[in-house]
Amino acid sequence: MGRVTSGTLPLADPPPRGHPAPPDLPEGVVPARVRSFVRRGRHSSLTRDRLERLGPLRALPAGPFEARSAFGRCAPVVLEIGCGHGHAAIAYAAHHPDHDVLAMDVHLPGLARMLAGAEAAGVSNLRVEQGDAVVFLEDRVTPQTFAAVHLFFPDPWPKTKHVKRRFVSEPNLDLLATVLRPGGHLLVATDQDFYAEHVLAEVAAHPRFTAYRTQRPAWRPTDGFEAKGRAAGRAISELRLDLLD
Ligand SMILES: C[S@@+](CC[C@H](N)C(=O)[O-])C[C@H]1O[C@@H](n2cnc3c(N)ncnc32)[C@H](O)[C@@H]1O
Asked: Which atom of ligand 1 is nearest to the CA of 85?
């Protein structure tokens, strides 16, 4: 690793900001802050060990996100939202040494696994942030920061009463339009046809993006949700959302 930051990753999920999200709200009732994820419980000793040993090397410095202080250089920064255990983020970082990658998720065990994977892969251009990406973007990111945003296999939230939890939504597209650089884009992959249609419909109604189906990125590993979807006979939708001028 080229640079050690002063940040840390928490060893426990932080308390939620704002309204606690009940798992199932009555139809038509929307909490003050709708989240695209659910919170899970305690962490194993392996997770804690990985976070303590490897977290400080890749955690962001506290405060506003600043690419130079986070990565020690000024290169295009790609944000992956909902990176899980980081297989795609690590692969992107390895295939794009001239780019920097910030991988975010809420759940610490996956991030801990990503830290171990990143160490094994020897990638120096990957940083990790734990938490709700929406809160991070709203509170700590200045406009026109990211060259691209990746959203691979987001939680589909299939029930009608949970549609508001889907990450691709009008308010989140507004936010992404702000933090993307001019000419920036968003890549979305999903193994759920209804989610792909949802994305296309949201973007069709949004003035700042245009969306189209695209090729699968060759650098992305084929495991995980993609493999599970294919094994179950589902097609994978690859969508690209370009930021309009
Ligand atoms: C279905 S998983 C996919 C994980 C990974 N992209 C993959 O392909 O294996 C979706 C992930 O998005 C994360 N997530 C959902 N909403 C999020 C948010 N607002 N901020 C950060 N992560 C979020 C969840 O915690 C979960 O790990």
From this structure: 9
